[in-house]
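Here is one chain, start to finish.
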Amino acid sequence: MTEAEAKAWLTTSLGVSRETMESLDAFVAFLKRESASQNLIAASTIEDIWSRHIVDSAQLLTFMDRSQPETKWLDLGSGAGFPGLIIALLTDFDVTLVESRARRIEYLQRAVEMLDIGGRVTVMGMPLERMKTAPFSVISARA
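Its structure:
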């Protein structure tokens, strides 16, 4: 899948709006800038960000009933924000990102602020074992 095909898939298969595509573009630009100073994604995948990371994250939505009210998504080891930040941009789900590395925590917090999704996205800067037990509708981990 080319980058153009990946973007087309998002709009045709998931119905992603122009405004959301603009937010995804802003996130990709932010991720590329940040990747220059920390190893967020493999350098070999930077030119294929849409097909290797964005669509890979977004495709999870095709495996679930998106009409469930009050979906709560838990993303373990969020790292560069995949899939958690992408899910948050594409849905109105409450998303919790769990990350224990200080630089990644700070990066995720800045991404959430830049994308203006702080009302629905929580960055838990701690190991999973330290989190309070809570119910979640979906749990993801991408490594």
